[in-house]
Structures are given as C-alpha cells and as structure tokens.
Amino acid sequence: MAKPLNILVTGGGGYLGSVLVPELLAAGHRVTVLDTFMYRQNSLASVCSDPNFDVVRGDARNPDTLTPLIKRADLAIPLAAIVGAPACDRDRVAAESVNRDAVVTLLGLLGRNQRVMMPITNSGYGVGEKGKFCTEDTPLRPVSLYGRTKVEAERAALERGNCISFRLATVFGMAPRMRIDLLVNDFVHRAVYDRAVVVFEGHFKRNYIHIRDVARAFLHGIERFDAMKDRPYNVGLSDANLSKIELCERIKKHLPKFVYLEAPVGEDPDRRDYIVSNARIEATGFRPRHTLDEGIGELIKGYKMIRDARFGNV
Domain map of the chain by residue range? Predict the structure, then answer.
C-alpha cells in the first residue's frame, strides 16, 4: 500500500470527484478539495466528518487560491473541467480557461517533485480508422472543443513530467453528484422514463467505463506511480467498444419495452467514432470490475430516485 499522501483535487465535488474523493480517504490519504460548487451540489457531505478531508470553495483558475493549497500537496488531481462537447460549445471561453489554462496554471505552480494525475477524454482520438484500435501512440485528432482543450492540457502535463494521464472512455454509473447527460446514463434515463430514444449516427462507436473503475484507476496509479509515470493510459472496458445502436440493444435486454429509432437525418454534435485498446494499463495489472450490464442495472435502480435533468451539465 502506498504511504498516505496529501492530495489536492480541483473540481472534487463533481461527478468523478464525488466517487474518487471518498475512495482516496478510505485508502488513508489526506484530501483537500477545491471547487466552485457551481451546481449547488452537496456531493461530499458524507465525508465531512473525516478529519483527513478539507474543502475550499474557490476557482481552480485563480493562482492566489491555488498557491497555499499546493504548498502542502504531494499529489495534484485536476478534475475541474467543463465536461462534454455541448457544455463546451455553450461557453467556449470557460471551456478553454478551465479545461486547459487552469491546468497550465497549476503545473506552473507545482514543484518538480510534486506529482500530477489527471483525467482527459479518449475523444481526442476523434474519428478512428475502421476496424483499427486506437492505442496511446495513435495520433490525436480531436473533433470537438472539449476534446481539443483536454488534449492540450494533457500535452502540457506530460511535457512537464512526473505525471500520469488517464484517457477515459465514456463514463457511466451512479454517483453522489449525478450526471444524466453522459451517453449511457442518458440512454438508460430515456429508456426508463420515455421508453424511447432517437439515435443520431447510430453506427458511431465508443468505449465505456464505470465511474468506480475510474476511481480504481487513480488508486492503481498512486500505488504504481513511479513505474507508470510520464505516459498516457487508455482506461475503458475492453469488451465494450460498442456503437450507439449496440448500446441500445444492451439496454433493451434490461428494459424490453424500450424502443430506439435511428434518425435518417441530423448529426451528433460530438462526432467521435473509434474503438480503443486498453492493453497498456491492463499490462500494469489493472482490470475493470464493473461490466456495462451491471452499470445499466445500477442506473435503472438509481433512476427510481432521480427524475429531472438538473443532474446534467447541459
């Protein structure tokens, strides 16, 4: 087990942070979260009683806010981001200043011995070659502002060094700060409440990963940091490189009354289409524990509690 670290997590009150932070604390680490709590979430309420947890309300773009927090950090995890192509297109200035510039600011304030672990999106692969897996050596060709800003942030972090980057597949699963606008979460929500969805460009393929396995990937990286550092790692389910139509078919197995139709016109604003190899991180001993079908079942239960779209970023 890795020795306890002082960890700074920016954006720690969000979808991923609300799962990751409790796991870091459970592993014995001391965690400080910096977040604006712009969605008025109380997603970390359950860990406020932990003496190893601290929270600061503030903006990850502000050097004056970051500087005192960085001084005592062994590891920084920049989660603060405007996530998803639609949200980034809605506020392009915020997308660039949060997704890229805030990370560059953080990197500039850190000492050389301080570590960084960051998530980006594997949407940086853009449109892949048919039948050919994208590996970490595949050229990055993001097709959205979201993908571009995350790719630029990763480049800055890897050039700085002492860093691990996780290129995340499309994340799914329940979390204290829930998001229903992510693809699997969205389609299951529609299947539960509308019993139907219209699919744009249903042949487009993506890879998927459960949010708890993303948190496990960070813990895995902490344990093996020196062996894994200064490289990017795809993080996804190797048996879940699926098209949108194939995803709908999987959901229908759980909800037989679900109807899905492919639109003859129109396009997906997030035009990524690729399949991904996760062999590099698997070679370090990491294996996801949560299947897509388990996640769908989990979401169906969760949506008995959640109805409205305030749990999305768009």
Answer: 6-172+207-238+277-289
